[in-house]
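can u do me a favor
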């Protein structure tokens, strides 16, 4: 398992609902949201795919792998 850290800017765009819909649908039991930081646990085999999805569809997020 790897953890993706997504930092959400204070002035996030209106598509925040879309972001949370995606996370709740595909990562329903493996995420934590606190104070503008979203951490998602994903299998290491799909980490690059998830990074691509977040960077492509939510470019305003700062995405990092933290472990």
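np, heres the sequence
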């Amino acid at each position: 398992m790897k953890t993706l850290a997504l930092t959400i800017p204070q002035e996030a765009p209106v598509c925040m609902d879309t972001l949370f819909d995606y996370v709740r649908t595909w990562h329903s039991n493996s995420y934590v949201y606190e104070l503008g930081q979203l951490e998602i646990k994903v299998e290491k085999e799909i980490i690059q795919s998830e990074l691509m999805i977040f960077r492509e569809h939510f470019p305003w997020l700062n995405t990092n792998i933290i472990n």
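Strands lie at 2-7, 31-34, 37-42, 62-65. hope that helps!!
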